Amino acid sequence: MHDQYPKLLEPLDLGFTQLKNRVLMGSMHTGLEEAKGGFEKLAAFYAERAKGDVGLIVTGGISPGFVGRLSPFASQLSSKRHLKKHQLITSAVHDNGGKICLQILHAGRYAYHPFAVSPSRIKSPISPFKPWQLTRSGIRRTIKAFVKTAVLAQQAGYDGVEVMGSEGYLINQFISLHTNHRSDEWGGSIENRFRFAHEIITGIREQVGKDWILMYRLSMLDLLNDGSNWEDVVYQAKQAESAGATLINTGIGWHEVRIPTIAASVPRAAFTWVTKRLVDSITIPLITSNRINTPEVAESVLSNGDADMISMARPFLADADFVLKAQKNESSSINTCIACNQACLDNVFKGKRATCMVNPRACYETELVIEPAEKIKTVVIVGLGPAGLACAKTAAERGHRVIAYDAHDLGGQLNLARKVPGKEEFNETLRYYRHYFYQYDIELHLNHRVTAEELNNDEYDVIVIATGVTPRMPHIVGIEHEKVLSYIDVISGEKTVGNKVAIVGAGGIGFDVAEYLLNDEADGSQNVDAWLKDWSIDRNYDSRGGLLNDKKTNLTGSKRKMYLLQRKDEKLGMRLGKTTGWIHRMVLKNHDVEMIEGVSYQKIDDDGLRIIRHGETRMLAVDNVIICAGQKSNSELYDALKNSDKEKYLIGGAYKAAELDAVAAIRQGVELAAKL
Ligand SMILES: Cc1cc2nc3c(=O)[nH]c(=O)nc-3n(C[C@H](O)[C@H](O)[C@H](O)COP(=O)(O)O)c2cc1C
Ligand code: SF4
Fold this sequence. Notes:
Blueprint: E1 12-13, E2 18-19, E3 23-25, H1 38-51, E4 56-62, H2 83-95, E5 100-104, E6 117-118, E7 132-133, H3 136-155, E8 160-165, H4 170-175, H5 190-208, E9 213-221, H6 230-243, E10 247-252, H7 272-276, E11 286-288, H8 295-303, E12 309-312, H9 315-318, H10 322-327, H11 345-349, E13 378-382, H12 386-397, E14 401-405, H13 414-417, H14 426-439, E15 443-445, H15 452-455, E16 462-465, E17 469-471, E18 484-486, H16 487-491, E19 500-504, H17 508-518, H18 528-534, E20 561-565, H19 581-590, E21 594-596, E22 599-605, E23 608-613, E24 616-620, E25 624-627, E26 631-633, H20 636-640, E27 647-650, H21 662-675
Parallel strand pairs: 3-4, 3-12, 4-5, 5-8, 6-7, 8-9, 9-10, 10-11, 11-12, 13-14, 13-16, 14-15, 16-27, 18-25, 19-20, 19-25, 20-21
Antiparallel strand pairs: 1-2, 17-26, 22-23, 23-24
Bound molecules: flavin mononucleotide and iron/sulfur cluster.
Flavin mononucleotide (FMN) binds at residues 26-29, 60-61, 103, 105, 164, 217, 262, 289-291, 312-315, 344-345, 348, 354.
């Protein structure tokens, strides 16, 4: 039956219980854990994924006590009075035929409050709070707290726990010499540094009995200069197994490390080779993780023998039915996670609820409900960028007759975005919409600029205008010079770009253009080995942290001299996404792109671009000036319908152009369609 993905969809027998397939929905803290009424919403979120036939779900990290909380108001499970809300989750998952584990996560020095603790008093570079050094009795109390949380999780009906031992949190802080400078029985040798984790696993196993899942998330490649070596990793895996772990999951990197591990520029399945190195050292099943986002990639990872099970976290924000669709051999209908982080991790870092760019229902399952339409209408959608596509698909899903127009091709600005290095995953988004346009029989008119007269058709009940944006041209003397190009000219490949370039405007699009020009001769394919080398990661794992000995990135040089300029007198890229902005800045810096802030533009002429900065004039002798100075709404068609009494809406960039935002555009499209 499962002819395309036999390994992925094969059950996994754990002896005392069976998992339906090899798919683990990886741990994700969503922000609902702390929200008022959040557990009801979390229960619905997990229930949809359980209904979607995920083999095993893990919750986001929950602290075993107050000091282990990531932030002062983060969630903890440490007393019987917390059980009731967790039971909402476990019964919702079980009612839908799923299994779920609770992740126990103690933040250690990553805690964002003054009570943070760690094995040694060493501040992390990403928290303002210097942790307190745990005393020996404090360590004993913390181990007990972990065990108590596991016991409570069992009472709440969870099928097991995942003990979070990676990504630089407390357990990892004990294991690493980077953060553990102790000279007692909890520091020094790897036996001593792993003792904390070992006692937690042993203690939990003793209390919960043998027939309960105990997963350990092991830091297999921490990417720290003075991090774990491979012998340490093997030791931990063997010890975790002998202490009673049922499954070992893979953790990659520490949060403070400046090497991307989950961003879109990380090739798919870039780290499964790390998990594979452990396969012969232990007998319990191994789970691999990070940037596995399609059933095809997951199947090939398993076929290659890299692991026994695949963890996918964000792909389950993007599509709750990932597994069901794989079972039906319909992978082209999967809404693929494009690894943008824009609505999930970036939101969590801003203290907002996680959701998903391509699936605005994620974590809003009880609020954004898509139901069959009460009255079938003919809905006309003009403009098929993100907002129009999302609106058309959802309206058709509800049973409406949908007629869609675009002056060009389906996709709008997504057709540009997908050409930018690291944004190729947008191809999947287009593939997904094409699938549903075909499945729902949406009447599609491409390369046709529709007029207000055409829309004044009695057959049409609702008109949705999603005509997007056009680039804004700033008032600079010489802006009409032939060396001036718009970002569309450049990314579409329509115009040739010279070897000396000034990019005016350093928002998301300015950075995109710079990265496009660094790579415009590349073929766009993702080569894991080349990428690992670029970021100084050593596939042979010869030194600590799995880093190459010179520890320098190979992101160097550029065939072009590039200037990236902005008017605002602040560091460039400050407003890019929290979890990915640093990567873009680092890539451009290492490629010698000159980033200049606080610029006013004086003149463009045959010599180049003349700028003034802090009172000083400078001539940038460039062949081209590329304008990335924002965009304006294309709302003329909507304005032309002003006197029409038809039901009409304006959405996406045509409604608000400020900074191109596919997250807002798709959400607006789906929300509107849900109400029509
Ligand atoms: C919003 C969000 C929250 C996360 N929270 C946790 C967490 O609480 N515990 C954890 O171990 N990993 C957490 N992760 C990391 C994921 O488990 C996973 O390792 C990472 O997203 C890479 O896998 P993916 O490419 O399949 O998403 C989180 C990831 C995201 C996107
Ligand atoms: S917001 Fe982006 S990275 Fe996050 S789950 Fe959705 S598509 Fe994936």
